[in-house]
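Page 47, continued from p. 46.
Same chain as before, 101 aa.
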Amino acid sequence: MKKLTEQDILNRIPENEQRIYQTMTQLNQIDKHKLWELIKESNKENITIYTGDLNRIGELLNRQLVHINKAYKTKNRKEVSLFVLNRAPYLIRLLKREYLD
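Result:
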């Protein structure tokens, strides 16, 4: 696995996304882990289906790191579609390319 330093990441993303990255680094370990799982599970459009309790991702929703896709309709009320880091396309692309490929 490649290992970028924080400065490497910040140098490679736009300024507005640097603030989003800083928000990510301030999360507690549980929320960081949950966000990373959502990033890994997301598709090319950075959308994923989440089937857990929304309270478990409440901090990610509050900090606007994920957003609920209200256009997604399901018969199962326990699943929801999420946009993951949709305000940080360069950041999520960098993370996926460096850590998942």
